[in-house]
Amino acid sequence: MRFGRHTLDLSQPRIMGILNTTPDSFSDGGSYYRDGRLALDLALERARQMLAEGAEIIDVGGESTRPGSTPVSEAEELDRVVPVVQALVNELGALVSVDTSNPTVIRETAKAGAGLINDVRALQKEGALEAAAATGLPVCLMHMQGTPETMQAHPRYDDPVEDVKSFLTTRVEACQTAGITAERILLDPGFGFGKTLEHNLALLRRLDEFRALGFPVLVGLSRKSMLGKLLGREVNERLPGSLALALASIQRGAAVIRVHDVAATRDVLAVQAALAEA
Ligand code: YH5
Known about the structure:
An eight-stranded parallel sheet has the order 10-9-8-7-6-3-12-11. Strands 1-2 form a two-stranded antiparallel ribbon. Strands 4-5 form a two-stranded antiparallel sheet. It has a single domain, classed as Dihydropteroate synthase-like (TIM Barrel, Alpha-Beta Barrel). The longest helix is centred in the N-terminal third of the chain and has 19 residues, at about 75-90. About 45% of the residues are buried. Helix 3 runs parallel beside helix 4 (about 130-135) and helix 9 (about 240-250) runs parallel beside helix 10. The chain has ten helices and twelve strands. Helix content is about 40%, strand content about 15%. It has helices at about 40-55, 75-90, 105-110, 130-135, 160-180, 195-205, 210, 225-230, 240-250, 260-275, and strands at about 1-5, 5, 15-20, 35, 35-40, 55-60, 95-100, 115-120, 140, 185-190, 220, 255-260. The chain binds ligand YH5. Ligand YH5 binds near residues 99, 140, 190, 191 and 225.
């Protein structure tokens, strides 16, 4: 798949490393802040490390979408994300994904050299579809039930797998109508976004059905609350569980794994690749 000036062969799984520029993220909030301000050099250093460890995409996010979080202003999101994207592209030549739903952030980060638009709202915000189409970049469409403020209150589905597939299929059609062609689309069931543990497990068990829709599948499971529920572990104790979920998802056909712990995930992929050889 083409991502701006980068190309990735998605017939084997690839690692997307998470770079959070929010001051308040659950698992790594404020990591790159100094004296209450985002420090570009710290963010750049972390990205450099993730690339050295085997990440092929760096996902930069400036909006906290954790359960119960409140919205960020457009100005604040632009302020956090655009300089980081610029630095990663210009200084590291990295393939940068932008975790955003905002049309202005989509346009400005594309200008700064981003290679992928990763939207947890699947381009449903006013103007987002048109902004993404105009960039010519690929998009990752993710499913969320509700909004970050309320999504974990009462998640409910007839059948989570059928409901999420049906939503994503509708968003694929909206993309195609807007001029985003099939070879520029990735799909993501949106683990933890308006889902109970049972819903998340059903989606992972049947992940192959998402791949069968005909698009590369991206998954974000790293350190998420389902591991808290399943294992009774705090967020900094979830690495083994996250690796088990990474392995389960590549065995079911995931093409891109979005993770905090790049080096450990790369070992999992290497073992799996060796076993797949013969
Ligand atoms: C995703 O799944 N997730 S932001 C809570 C945690 C740990 C991590 C309680 N952006 C996804 O990573 N984009 C986010 O511990 C995403 N897929 C895509 N495509 C939430 C997150 C997290 C939340």
